[in-house]
Design a protein that fits this description.
By secondary structure, this protein is an all-beta fold. The chain has one domain. The chain is 0% helix and 58% strand. The protein has no helices and five strands. It has strands spanning 14-25, 28-38, 43-54, 59-70, 80-90. A five-stranded antiparallel beta sheet has the order 1-2-3-4-5, with no helix packed on it. The chain is elongated. The relative contact order is 0.17.
């Protein structure tokens, strides 16, 4: 096995995020998020949108869509990627803590 020493680099990176949540009723909520990581050579932006429907006290079903935009993607990859998800959400709640 061989190793190769790479030159070190220094760069400041700004990382910011915003999350929004809206409850239509006690069983249905919309969750949106936006995250940006930006440095000298690259900026990556991630936007997500999810609809979560509560089925029982512990289980919810969530459908989501995410877009990731990279200003300097790796070779062979496009600048924008997206994914669609369907998730089963299990809620872990501490009964000793007051609800939000």
């Amino acid at each position: 096995m061989s190793t190769q020493q790479l030159d070190s680099t220094t760069d400041a990176v700004v990382d910011s995020a915003m999350n929004l949540e809206h409850a239509f009723n006690p069983y249905t909520k919309l969750i949106a998020s936006l995250a940006v990581e930006s440095g000298k050579e690259n900026t990556m932006t991630t936007a997500s949108l999810s609809l979560q429907v509560k089925m029982t006290n512990l289980l919810s079903l969530a459908a989501g869509y995410q877009i990731v935009r990279n200003s300097e993607p790796p070779p062979g990859a496009g600048p924008t990627n997206s994914s669609t998800t369907l998730n089963l959400v299990y809620e872990l709640a501490n009964k000793n803590v007051a609800p939000e």
